[in-house]
Amino acid sequence: MAEHTEHHIVPIKVYIAVFLALMVFTAITVAVASFPLENIWGPLNIIVALTVAVIKATLVILYFMHVRYSSRLTQVIIVAGIFWLLVLLLFTLADYASRSGWPTPLAQ
Amino acid sequence: MATETLEMTAEKRVTYLNVSHTVKSWLLTLDHKRIGLLYLFAISFFFLIGGIYATLIRLELVTPQGDLMTADTYNRVFTMHGVVMIFFFLIPSIPAVLGNFLLPIMLGAKDVAFPRLNLLSWYVFMVGAGLFMLTMINGGIDTGWTFYPPYSSIYSNSQVTLAGVAIFITGFSSILTGLNFMVTIHTMRAPGLTWFRLPLFVWAHYATSLIQILGTPVIAITVLALALERTFQIGIFDPKLGGDPVLFQHLFWFYSHPAVYIMILPSMGVISEIIANMTRKRVFGYHFVAFSSLAIAVFGFLVWGHHMFTSSQSMYAGFIFSIISYAVAIPSAIKTFNWTATIYKGSVSYDTPMIYALAFLGLFTIGGMTGLFLSALGLDVHLHDTYFVVAHFHYVMVGGALSGYLGGMHFWWPKITGKLYPEVWGRISAVIIFLGFNLTFFPQFVMGYLGMPRRYHAYVPEFQILHVLSSAGASILAIGFIMPIIYFAWSIKYGQPAPNNPWTAVGLEWQTTSPPPPENFNYTPVVETEAYEFEHVEEIKNAGAGEVKRRHKESRKKNASRQSKNCQTS
Ligand code: HEM
Ligand SMILES: [Cu+2]
Fold it and tell me: Does B306 sit in the ligand 1 pocket, CB within 6 Å?
């Protein structure tokens, strides 16, 4: 990737394909929002919605923001940003996950 | 060679200040030095505004009754004080003023990597600042600088949305500055200036930039979410709408704890420069001091929960945040011990910058240590939201970060303006600030420990003596702050012209003229030594200033490709 960095020209077809993919995923999001998936399994609605969102974000970052064709350093910076987001999520969710159902030594 | 030095300081020399005089040449400048000065004017203005609010707070608290203002007004006053001082003064202070001015020069570069982005960052800052002024005129906000919902998102009758937008916008100026610095440090170092030859000021700013880039987007999106909830009743933080207020605290502190390091790290960089140059010794344990900045930047992101021990955050998360908070004090302690070791057996000169550096050492140590008290799970239940916390963060933010800023302003004033400030007044005001500061904030530790809560305009009479002491200290502190404003302004017109290197300091910024030419150097500097190589500078001092240039010329010859820019004769 780092080899062919600077003047990579992305064929217009790629952009159109990505755009169409994004549209399809948007349609899925809308459909899922009005379809009671939780009847099948409680958190399924959220799982589908978030998966779709992550895929869409990835497509935008890789193609529209040209990260797929960028230098290694740019990619490292972006991965660092995502890693930091994971830190935020991990520590925050660690709080929520350990609020109940764990022993409280001083209780009662 | 001596005559040549004289010629260099002769009047006709073109400097970044006299190269053009029009208003337009300032407002559209791409010169990092001028942009630094634009920031200086903006943040000095906000320091004044924040100071006025602080005066109102201390006046109100002289008596136990709320006689000067209503509780509601008082809420607005302390909130505006906090927001102005943190977002519009302290966060931009050292990076945007001294960092902008010095970083490219310390790297031997002509400018930052993206000069236009740099100017844009100032304009973005001014737009955010302008909006915030609008908030101020419309009565300000009353939520505390922490904006906790659901009060802020549902109940407050003040300008929360506008203030949120202002802070959102200002955040981008901080991101742009950080981005610019990072790329500049990566790509624009002078020939020979390897990573471990960088001044520690640069390392500190690198670490700061990292936090600005990785942290600021989170506060931006958080205040935006708050504004959305407030405007459209989307349930994000308010439990009545299905949101979670503690989620706001997580998001807010994910940025705002690292933000305290945005304030202190650049100051630590300044202190490294001052201490090395004022003791004429290489900073003890250079690598440790450099890497401790990075460690602070990274691990500073993992401790935010220590602000939430008394919320519904789980006890287990509290354990983790508490332990990591203890760990993150280690890199700060490494720095403090290494600076102390640097002073040991150095030839110390007690000029104004050094007085500020010594003040920093003492006050930051007290501030940091009390931070550890607060990171103890049990003790924090007693101390949380009392004046003890207020005293803690003023020791680190005023005693630490602001001391560094003022020390740096004195240290580099001759370089920035080409004028010497009156040294005696500098020392007097530094001592006044130190004394006034301690009188203001030490009693707050005591009253906080005794149970005086923060953010109240009235209190039980038992605390009055401590509050009066604190207010008396604040008036002394105010005198100490006004003095530099006066003598700095005075020195611009009447000060002695500054030599290029008034402190016989090392560092590339002292090898160019005072004030520097528009492109910083009239030749491309080549770096052959480590930072803080004082044997080398003694040699040069004895040999005269021409020697510096001769050495550069020699190195340049070795480096044939870079020979072109040699416009000065030798
Ligand atoms: C040595 C490392 C430090 C530790 C372990 C530490 C720890 C803490 C803790 C536990 C609190 C929460 C107290 C409470 O609300 O109950 C706190 C508050 C605070 N600290 Fe520190 N601190 C440290 C350094 C700093 C530095 C360097 C700064 C700023 C330059 C700073 C600024 C603040 C501020 C502004 C608050 C109050 C936030 C609020 O308004 O509630 N701290 N600190
Ligand atoms: Cu903190």
Answer: yes
